[in-house]
Structures are given as structure tokens and as C-alpha cells.
Specification:
The structure holds 2 protein chains of 2 kinds. By secondary structure, chain A is α/β, with parallel strands linked by helices. Chain A is built from 9 helices and 28 strands. Chain A has 2 domains: 4-265, Spore Coat Polysaccharide Biosynthesis Protein SpsA, Chain A (Alpha-Beta Complex), CATH 3.90.550.10; 283-366, 3 Solenoid (UDP N-Acetylglucosamine Acyltransferase, domain 1), CATH 2.160.10. Helices cover 22% and strands 28% of the residues of chain A. In chain A, strand 9 and strand 10 (173-178) form a beta hairpin. In chain A, helix 6 (197-210) crosses helix 7. Chain B is an alpha/beta fold. Chain B folds into 2 domains: 5-259, Spore Coat Polysaccharide Biosynthesis Protein SpsA, Chain A; 282-370, 3 Solenoid (UDP N-Acetylglucosamine Acyltransferase, domain 1), CATH 2.160.10. Chain B is 20% helix and 29% strand. Chain B is globular, with a radius of gyration of 22 Å. Classes of the chains: A alpha/beta, B alpha/beta. Chains A and B meet through strand 14, strand 15 and strand 16 of A and strand 16, strand 17, strand 18 and strand 21 of B.
Chain lengths: 372, 375
């Protein structure tokens, strides 16, 4: 089997406002117990890719906290590795802090592992995807670069600003541009690439001539549109959950409360691994009323919870009512407080206030650590 | 603890009284409290007490338990100064032997203890549910200059004849040991938790091994012999929650204590001084359906509750289907209670299936075990 290096790319991500101020998007909590990047890391792991690099722009501590048990995604802990790379040099100049500059500053990893292929995947398209199928396609087509894409039907509303691809019959991409919502049916790039080693180096070299501000995604588009390197397209026809905005984040989270949707994202033979925290099982009190909700371990539920996602070590006291909410780790909701359409970030304590509400279209976000 | 304590956990028993639950599993590896296995309790207690060298004596269905013990990572016992190893009976220079009794299990591992040079040896049982730090007990042993210290718990005097009872003097020095006495001289029952000064224990084990009449048991042989010889045996009065979960009824009751969040066995304490560690599963979070209800219960990740659950303990990947009603049940990993079924006072073994509309043990006080698992 070919030697593969998997790169989980936390650069070049959409901003989710308040939620991505203190952490990279990839480290954002999802469905009460995951971090978004768990999907990409588990896809690597389940595909037999045991050498993994996480490229992060900054907020390294959030990434380190989440990946402290690197063994979670690694099969053999001696031959495999999970490394976290941040480009110290450009940490204060975000425009120059690209994924290309980051991997260049850690290029010894590439030299040491000497991979045949490098797979670069972002953290914000959630799916259960077997990279081996894509590698097979890449090899069969003798491709230099293969880009993963999905066909969408509602391009005027969804996947805005993502790259939309024109693909020839021989699977070669002929044009790439941003989706500005002109058409419904589109081929959307999932910003996941397999590079043969030489093509990886070619893209980096090309970036030196084109722009220091361009990352891999922009450079691949450049290579396509300027006919510098042939880029093949491989279709993924499975279920994708794109997290491109805070509304996406909230809506997609709630959509996954539906069993049908959940079965499409979580496959029986494709576990999604995550860091664990030795929390006891969730505890339900005598007057607990819980409906249509995800509850993580360590939660203590004494009040009412409906259509909500409750993370680890959350406490909901008696008489409290939680509807359509996302409560992050260690949120505390005091007695008789009513919360509707509220997202509480980590360590929020609702003690004094008894009514908090946002709306379906605009969820109320309470900042990390706030006591109200 | 400046002195070195090595813990030896007796985990080889067959656990016959747990019936089908231990058909393929050693008792200490049986599931407890939705997410744990019984042996997580003594192992976590050791880890929290700063005891880093531990032997787990396995015998019955040892493979599964040995694999679970692993390198100790689950309890943080894989650090640079830690050693956790399972010690199953094996062939040696002296021949091949099963462990013939609790004391013999230690005797057959004298080499392990010699190599680790303990000052004190802590003997624990792999099937007790309790949260404690052993430091006070070891300190008492040292402060009283005891040769052996035995952890005792006060039991109802009416129940005392079911236990090994320690009669003590004013200073809690043990003066007499009575095994299941008709007329108990105290209500202090031995918990089967001992601290021994290593050199003395070693001498007694070697002598006991040569005695053809001995059953090679701590309670029946080693302790009475030490008492007889006038050694100093100290009682350590344990206060707090402690249960031997050797029967279906006691295993069920201890689980119910978890479901009702018994103050004495609180898994949710904030100081984390006695947190219990275990392996984790990679299941999706637990999901409670639109028409489900859960009260007075604990549930682990991966469980799906679409029906009604009251006073239950629900392990990962267990499914309670719509309109099913479970009361006072311990529902183990991967078990399924199908639509409209009703179950009361039951332990449902891993991967067992309750059929739709089936009614089991309703209105009964007796605990039943349902074991229909394929795995």
C-alpha cells in the first residue's frame, strides 16, 4: 500500500462569529461530545491512515486540549503519529498565515515520512468518508491531484462561497469559481485533495510565484484555471453536513436529532472517535422531563429539556426549562430558569436571570465563562 | 505515602451466583452502573490513593479480564513509575497450578512482590463497589505498629452471622475472628481488604503453602494463624458505601443505588478525589426520543431511549423502543427492549432482546436475570 500522510487543515475556514473567537472551527463542540475535526481525523483513522498532521492557524491550546489523547485516532502509536503544526512566524499576520506557509515551516515532516500521497482535508464538511475509494480513483486515473466534490441541488441557498467546479467527461476539472448562488445544480468542491508527492511540491513552488496570500484551495483553483496541473474530480454521493456559518451550525445540529439524518452521518462500521473525559453516565432526576434531545455523559438533568443538545458535565436544576438550546460543556442552569433558542458556550452559569430567549432565526449566544 | 505499597487484587473467582452473567466473563469484568466494570472501582481507588504497583490475580475466564486490565492506561496506571499487570496462573519451575485459594494466589506470585520490594501489601477484592482512598488505612497500620490491618464495616447485628466477624478490644485491636458465627461477638464484618507488613506476610504465606490441611485462604487460614500466634492485628473501621456484588440481588441493588444517586456513592462529586475511571466507548451521544421519558436513572452514551424508563441503569448501545416501559432494570450493553414490552426488577444481560409486548416480572419483588445475548 502507498504511504500516505493525512493533513487535517484548520486554516481557511468560515467564521462562526463568537463561536470561533476562542477556538478554531475544527475544535468547536458538536452534538454534545465531538469536536468538528473528529470527523476528518476518524475518516483518516478508519481509512488506515496512521500518520496525521493537524495544521492550525492559532488558538493552539484549544486544538491541543482536544487532541491530548492522540492515541484516539492512531492505530500503532510507534509507527503512527498525530502532530499539531502552527506557524509561529506568521501568527500575528493572519493574511500570510496560510496552510501552505504552515506546512512549509514544518516541511521536515514531509521529508521524514516521505509519503507517496498527501491528503488534505478540512474540518467543516462532516461526513463518514472512506479515503481508500478516492485513492483508488486517483491511482486508476494516474492523477496528480484529485479533488473530492459533491453534487448539490440547492446551490442558490447552500454552499455559498464554496468552490463550484466544471468537470469534463474524463473527470478532469476544467474550471473552478466561487458559488455566488447563480445556479441550483452544482458540483461543489469539498476542499479535500489527494496530492501525489510531486504535485504537492509543484503547488507549493507555484504559490511562490503567484501569491504569498494563497493557500492550497486557492492555488489548486489557480492551477485548474490556468491549466498548470490537471486536477481530477472524484464524486462523493453520501451525506455531507456543511458547517459554513453559525446558522448552519445550529440548524444542522438540530437536524441531526432526527434518527434518519443521524443514520446517514454515523455509519455502523465507521466509528467517529473523540477525546474522552472519564465522565460518569448522565443522571436523570425524579422530575426530569427530556424529549428529543442528545445528552452527553456527566450531565445531571433535574429539569425539563426539549429539542436540545446537552454537552458533558452540564447541570440543569429542578424547574428549569430548556427548549431548542445547545448547551456546551459545564453549563449550569439554575432553578426555574427558562431558556429557549439559546446557545451557551463552555462554562456559562445561568444563575440570576430566569428568562433567556433567542429566536429560530437568531439564536442567542452566551459567551464562554459568562455568569448571568 | 513514603512507604511503598503494592496492591494485589483478587479477581479470579467464578462468580457462580451471578449465573449467566459470568458464563463467559469473570465477575470483576461484569458491567456496572451503565459505563463501568466492577473492577474499575478497586483499580480507580488504588490510582486515586497513589498506589502505582498493582497485580491483578485472574483465573476464571481470564483472557477478557486480562485484556481489559491491559497496560493500565484506563486508570492512568501506565505512567513512568507505574506497573499494572494481570497475574494468571501459569507454568513455572515448580510446575503448573491453579490458584487454590486467596492466599495461594499471592504465594504463587511471591516473585512479583519480591521484585517490587513493597513495605506493605494491600490485598483487595475485585468485586467490591466502593469509593475510597486507602491512605488512612495504611497510615493506621503504620501508626499502630500492626502486623496486619483488616478493614471492617459495621453491619446490622441481626445480619452479623452472615459475615466474618472481628471481635476487638478498646483500641480496635482484633482479639478474635469468627467465620459466620451463630453468636457473633461484635457487628464488625471483615471486608476482605487487608494491609500486611510484607515481611510478615511473606513468612506466613511460605509456611501456609507447606501445610497440607490449609485451604490457603486469607480469612480461614492466614488471619486465624496470625491471631493464634499473637501477632498484632488491627481493625480499620471503614465508613461509607461498600457493597459486595456477588449475587444478582446485590448487583441489582448497587445499580439502583447509582440510579437514585445515593449520596454515599456519588459518582458526580466535584472534587474528583475519588473519581472512577473506565474505558470509554465511541458511541454517539445518548438520545431521548420525542415520546420517551427518563426519571431517576442513569444512562450511558450510545443508548437510545424512545420508551419510558424509571429507576434504571442503561448501558451504551442499549435501545428502549417506543411504548416500552422499564422500571428498576439494569439494562446492559447492546440490549434491546422492543416496542410495548414491560420489564420490572430485572437485569438484562448484554445484547439480550426483549420481544415486542413481552411482559417480564411485573409486580414482583424478586430480581430476574434475562440473558439471551448472542454475543
Amino acid at each position: 500500500m502507498a504511504k500516505i500522510l493525512g493533513i487535517c487543515n484548520l486554516h481557511d475556514t468560515p467564521s462562526l462569529g463568537q463561536l470561533t473567537k476562542t477556538r478554531p472551527l475544527g475544535a468547536l463542540s458538536f452534538l454534545s461530545r465531538y469536536g468538528l475535526m473528529d470527523f476528518t481525523l476518524s475518516n483518516f483513522s478508519n481509512s488506515g491512515i496512521d500518520r496525521i498532521v493537524i495544521l492550525t492557524e492559532s488558538n493552539t491550546s484549544a486544538v491541543l486540549n482536544h487532541t491530548q489523547q492522540g492515541n484516539v485516532w492512531i492505530n500503532n502509536t510507534r509507527t503512527g503519529f498525530l502532530r499539531i503544526c502552527v506557524n509561529e512566524k506568521y501568527i500575528d499576520t493572519p493574511k500570510f498565515n496560510t496552510d501552505i506557509a504552515n506546512i512549509e515551516s514544518h516541511y521536515s515532516i514531509i521529508e521524514d515520512t516521505n509519503p507517496d500521497y498527501i491528503i488534505l482535508a478540512p474540518s467543516f464538511f462532516l461526513m463518514s468518508f472512506d479515503f481508500r475509494k478516492m485513492i483508488e480513483f486517483h491511482e486508476e486515473n494516474g492523477a496528480e491531484i484529485t479533488c473530492l466534490y459533491t453534487k448539490i441541488k440547492h446551490g442558490k441557498k447552500e454552499y455559498l462561497n464554496c468552490d463550484t467546479l466544471e468537470i469534463a467527461k474524463n473527470h478532469v476539472i476544467t474550471h473552478s469559481k466561487a458559488n455566488v448562488g447563480e445556479e441550483e445544480k452544482q458540483n461543489i468542491s469539498l476542499e479535500t485533495f489527494i496530492f501525489s508527492r510531486s504535485a504537492f511540491d509543484k503547488i507549493i513552488a507555484l504559490s511562490h510565484k503567484v501569491s504569498s496570500l494563497y493557500g492550497f484551495r486557492r492555488m489548486v483553483s489557480y492551477a485548474i484555471n490556468h491549466h498548470r496541473i490537471a486536477v481530477h474530480a472524484f464524486e462523493y454521493d453520501g451525506y455531507v453536513v456543511p458547517i459554513l456559518s453559525s446558522m448552519d451550525y445550529v440548524n444542522k445540529s438540530f437536524e441531526l436529532l432526527s434518527y434518519e439524518n443521524r443514520q446517514k452521518l454515523f455509519l455502523d462500521d465507521w466509528p467517529i472517535y473523540t477525546t474522552t473525559h472519564n465522565t460518569p453516565p448522565a443522571l436523570y432526576g425524579e422530575h426530569a422531563k427530556v424529549k428529543n434531545s442528545f445528552i452527553a455523559n456527566g450531565a445531571i438533568i433535574k429539569g425539563q429539556v426539549e429539542n436540545s443538545i446537552i454537552s458533558r458535565d452540564v447541570t440543569i436544576e429542578e424547574g428549569a426549562v430548556i427548549k431548542n438550546c445547545l448547551l456546551f460543556t459545564q453549563t449550569y442552569v439554575g432553578k426555574d430558569a427558562h431558556l429557549e433558542y439559546v446557545l451557551t458556550d463552555k462554562n456559562v452559569k445561568v444563575k440570576e436571570v430566569k428568562e433567556l430567549s433567542g429566536t429560530k432565526d437568531k439564536i442567542l449566544v452566551i459567551k464562554q465563562g459568562d455568569i448571568i | 505515602m513514603p512507604n511503598k505499597v503494592v496492591a494485589m487484587i483478587l479477581a479470579g473467582g467464578k462468580g457462580t451466583r451471578l449465573e449467566a452473567l459470568t458464563k463467559k466473563t469473570a465477575k470483576p469484568a461484569v458491567s456496572f452502573a451503565a459505563k463501568y466494570r466492577i473492577i474499575d472501582f478497586p483499580l480507580s481507588n488504588c490510582a486515586n490513593s497513589g498506589i502505582n504497583t498493582i497485580g491483578v490475580l485472574t483465573q476464571y475466564e481470564s483472557t477478557d479480564l486480562d485484556a481489559y486490565v491491559g497496560n493500565g492506561e484506563k486508570w492512568g496506571l501506565n505512567g513512568v513509575h507505574s506497573l499494572l499487570t494481570s497475574l494468571a496462573p501459569r507454568q513455572t519451575e515448580e510446575g503448573a497450578n491453579w490458584y487454590k485459594g486467596t492466599a495461594d494466589a499471592i504465594t504463587q506470585n511471591l516473585d512479583f512482590l519480591d521484585e517490587n520490594e513493597p513495605d506493605y501489601v494491600l490485598i483487595l477484592s475485585g468485586d467490591h463497589i466502593y469509593k475510597t482512598l486507602y491512605n488512612d488505612m495504611v497510615d493506621l497500620h503504620i501508626d499502630t505498629n500492626a502486623d496486619a490491618t483488616i478493614s471492617v464495616i459495621e453491619v446490622d447485628p441481626k445480619e452479623a452471622s452472615r459475615f466474618g466477624i472481628m471481635a476487638v478490644d478498646k483500641e480496635d485491636r482484633i482479639v478474635e475472628f469468627q467465620e459466620k458465627p451463630k453468636q457473633p461477638k461484635s457487628n464488625l464484618a471483615s471486608m476482605g481488604v487487608y494491609v500486611f507488613s510484607w515481611k510478615i506476610l511473606r513468612k506466613y504465606l511460605v509456611e501456609d503453602a507447606k501445610d497440607p490441611k490449609s485451604e490457603h485462604d486469607f480469612g480461614n487460614n492466614i488471619i486465624p494463624k496470625m491471631l493464634n500466634d499473637g501477632l498484632k492485628l488491627q481493625a480499620y473501621r471503614y465508613k461509607g458505601y461498600w457493597r459486595d456484588v456477588g449475587t444478582l440481588a446485590s448487583l441489582h441493588q448497587a445499580n439502583m443505588d447509582i440510579a437514585s444517586n445515593d449520596e454515599m456513592l456519588n459518582l458526580y462529586e466535584s472534587d474528583r478525589e475519588t473519581r472512577i475511571y473506565t474505558e470509554d466507548t465511541y458511541s454517539v451521544p445518548q438520545y431521548i426520543g420525542p415520546s420517551g421519558s427518563v426519571t431517576k436513572s442513569v444512562a450511558n452514551q450510545g443508548s437510545v431511549i424512545l420508551g419510558h424508563v424509571e429507576s434504571c441503569v442503561i448501558s451504551s448501545d442499549a435501545i428502549i423502543e417506543e411504548d416500552a416501559v422499564c422500571t428498576r432494570c439494569v439494562i446492559m450493553k447492546g440490549a434491546r427492549v422492543s416496542q410495548g414490552a414491560k420489564v420490572h426488577n430485572a437485569i438484562i444481560a448484554p445484547y439480550s432482546i426483549i420481544k415486542p409486548k413481552e411482559e417480564i416480572n411485573l409486580n414482583s419483588d424478586k430480581i430476574v436475570l434475562i440473558a439471551r445475548g448472542g454475543k
